[in-house]
Design a protein that fits this description.
The chain is mainly beta. Helix content is 2%, strand content 61%.
């Protein structure tokens, strides 16, 4: 073994949303879809009903928006990541545009929301070098081979949603989304011996499909100053009708003669059923604590894989590459009150923690588990024209680790600007 995995950032400020080698598996690294205020609580959302924030993770919450408000929320982030494997460390950093969403009340007890958010991200480049034979022979003692892995792309999501409160304390909602994007993953195998062939494999797909989400929320008073909200969100899985492609090229380094094989699978990619349930306890509109659980049913989905069986190359459906993903998150916020004049009393203080299991396997072993901790603030923006907008700032630490593989530690700073404008007001003329 001459070397370990050498990690090389693809760009200082990449637009892929990630530089993780783990994004080469499945549909990539699943994006943190939380908005600015959710991120301070590590994504807790299903039971939260905010009159001045956009909570698109449960569309039933749209019915809580203020009647005279048009809320626009945009988020950016700065991500710094440390990769470590077998004593070798590499650092990467990147800035990303995260989301842009909006909501307003269309009618009494009826809210509307729309926006663009990420679904998954792919972006990595690394290589490893090894001897051809661990027991050197006269012909291979100095011969090595290098595998270079690279990939880019991702899937984006644009949605339009409604939330309606048909009866007191009970709301329902739906998001209808359009998913689009593509990915390209390549593996290049080269030898230090110039007489050996270079092998190049490229995997690609274009994705264009829909996604539906259905949500509900029910609030129960448990005292004069306390109430509990239960939220549920469900998204049905389906086939995306995408056609994954694989191109394999074997080229002789001396003669430059190349053999090319092309493969394609019809309807080879699917998205899973997703079910989330959560609860939020609200004390006097000052202290809010939420607990969420989500399951993504990846385990029964098939995935395309290239392999050689009895010297015959194949690109076929394979089961067992995915597994169900479970995530649990706990978070909350405290604010003394928005009616106070003191800026410190109007700040929203937030914190949260989450744990998620992997949704894919690597060489038959489970992928990395994810542990995350976050904290943040919601700072009111007060001036002579507007005292309803808010700056959401949060910091998040994420660890991804799997036995025998790369250990990732990421530190993300999130900035979310929530512009809350007073619209639809009726003016009297004297």
């Amino acid at each position: 073994m001459l070397g370990v995995m050498i990690l090389a950032p693809t760009s200082t400020f990449a637009q892929s949303g990630t530089e993780s080698p783990y994004s080469q598996f499945g549909v990539g690294q699943l994006a943190d879809q939380a908005a600015g205020f959710n991120r301070g609580m590590n994504g807790v959302a299903y039971g939260f009903r905010e009159h001045n924030q956009v909570n698109y993770l449960n569309p039933a919450s749209y019915s809580a928006v203020d009647s005279l408000s048009f809320i626009f929320d945009v988020g950016v982030s700065l991500l710094m990541t440390n990769f470590e494997e077998r004593g070798v460390k590499r650092n990467a950093r990147q800035a990303n545009f995260e989301y842009a969403v909006a909501t307003f009340r269309a009618a009494k007890h009826l809210g509307v929301s729309f926006g663009i958010i990420p679904f998954s991200n792919i972006g990595y480049k690394y290589s490893n070098t090894e001897r051809v034979n661990d027991l050197p022979s006269p012909t291979s003692a100095n011969t090595t081979y290098t595998n270079t892995y690279s990939g880019s792309g991702g899937v984006h999501q644009a949605y339009l949603g409604i939330g309606w409160q048909p009866v007191k304390n009970f709301s329902i909602g739906m998001n209808a989304s359009y998913l689009w994007g593509d990915y390209s993953r390549s593996i290049t195998n080269t030898y230090s011996d110039s007489y050996a062939n270079t092998l190049y494999k490229n995997y690609s797909a274009d994705i264009s499909t829909y996604k539906l989400e259905f949500g509900l929320q029910y609030t129960q008073d448990i005292g004069k100053k306390d109430h509990v909200t239960i939220g549920v969100n469900y998204s049905p899985g389906h086939n995306t009708k995408a056609d994954p492609k694989c191109v394999v090229i074997s080229q002789n380094s001396q003669t430059l003669v190349a053999d090319t094989a092309k493969f394609e699978i019809r309807d080879g990619l699917s998205i899973p059923h997703i079910l989330g349930i959560g609860t939020m306890w609200n004390h006097n509109d000052r202290l809010k604590i939420g607990l969420d659980y989500q399951i993504q049913k990846w385990g029964k989905l098939e995935s395309p894989e290239y392999k050689v069986v009895d010297n015959v190359p194949q690109y076929t459906y394979v089961k067992g590459l995915y597994k169900d993903r479970h995530k649990i998150a706990l978070g909350g916020e405290y604010c003394k009150g928005e009616r106070y004049r003191s800026i410190l009393s109007r700040i929203h203080y937030r914190a949260g923690v989450s744990y998620a299991s992997p949704y894919y396997k690597i060489s038959g072993k489970d992928g990395p588990k994810e542990l995350s901790v976050s904290a943040g603030f919601g700072i009111p923006i007060m001036n002579g024209y507007n005292n309803r907008s808010m700056l959401n700032i949060s910091a998040q630490w994420v660890n991804q680790k799997a036995a025998g593989f790369i250990n990732e530690n990421s530190f993300r700073i999130n900035l979310g600007f929530t512009f809350n404008e007073r619209w639809f007001a009726k003016f009297k003329v004297d």
